[in-house]
């Protein structure tokens, strides 16, 4: 290894003992936080009461947004894809929250798979063969896969930048 390579590696490596924790948010703002997703300047956190939005543009001073709360029944984890937050909502399945305006999120829809999804612990969104799917870890039923967008949907719906999920 050249001396230049060694210097570059040593100057760019992250040494955990030198890192600092710029801020902490806890009770009463967050009660038993369970999952987090970050998109641009916002952090979306699920806790005992549902989904909450934090403005993290200034990491030394993160703050709760005034209207950034959506009450949910059993929120366990969250995944944000563009303008929707998909919340693994335990016994209820997957709650979909519209976060186009992150400071004023609102409940959009629930997907429970006709009773076949009732212990949702985690959810991730992925593209497979031109379609978008929600991959849901369900403690009772295992991995559940929900097709949320398909190229065979209405062409006007599918061609939008962020098509709404279809249940």
Q: What structural class should be given to the helix and strand makeup?
A: mainly beta
CATH class: Mainly Beta
The proportion of residues in beta strands is: 35-45%
CATH homology superfamily: TolB, C-terminal domain
The overall average pLDDT, rounded, is 86
**Low-pLDDT windows of residues:** none
Number of strands: 11
Figure out the total of helices: 2
CATH fold field value: Neuraminidase
The coarse overall form would be globular
Quick rundown:
The chain is 8% helix and 43% strand. The chain has helices at residues 3-12, 155-158, and strands spanning 35-39, 42-47, 50-55, 63-71, 77-81, 84-88, 94-98, 106-111, 120-128, 131-138, 142-149. The strands form three sheets. It has a four-stranded antiparallel β-sheet with strand order 1-2-3-4, with no helix packed on it.
Structure description:
- It is a single chain.
- By secondary structure, this protein is mainly beta.
- It has a single domain, classed as TolB, C-terminal domain (Neuraminidase, 6 Propeller), CATH 2.120.10.30.
- The protein has helices at 3-12, 155-158; strands spanning 35-39, 42-47, 50-55, 63-71, 77-81, 84-88, 94-98, 106-111, 120-128, 131-138, 142-149.
- The strands form three sheets. Strands 1-2-3-4 form a four-stranded antiparallel beta sheet, with no helix packed on it. A four-stranded antiparallel beta sheet has the order 5-6-7-8, with no helix packed on it.
- The longest helix has 10 residues, at 3-12.
- The mean pLDDT is 86.
């Amino acid at each position: 290894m050249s001396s230049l390579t060694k210097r570059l590696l040593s100057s760019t490596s992250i040494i955990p003992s030198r890192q600092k924790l710029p801020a902490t948010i806890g009770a009463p703002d967050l009660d038993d936080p369970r999952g987090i997703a970050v998109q641009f300047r916002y952090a979306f956190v699920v806790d005992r009461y549902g989904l909450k939005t934090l403005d993290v543009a200034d990491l030394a001073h993160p703050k709760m947004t005034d209207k950034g709360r959506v009450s949910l029944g059993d929120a366990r984890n969250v995944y944000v894809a563009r303008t929707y937050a998909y919340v693994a909502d335990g016994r209820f399945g997957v709650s979909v929250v519209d976060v186009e305006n992150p400071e004023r999120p609102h409940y959009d829809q629930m997907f429970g798979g006709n009773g076949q999804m009732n212990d949702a612990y985690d959810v991730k969104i992925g593209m497979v063969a031109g379609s978008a799917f929600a991959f849901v870890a369900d403690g009772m039923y295992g991995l559940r896969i929900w097709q949320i967008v398909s190229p065979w949907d209405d062409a006007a719906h599918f061609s939008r930048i962020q098509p709404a999920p279809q249940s």
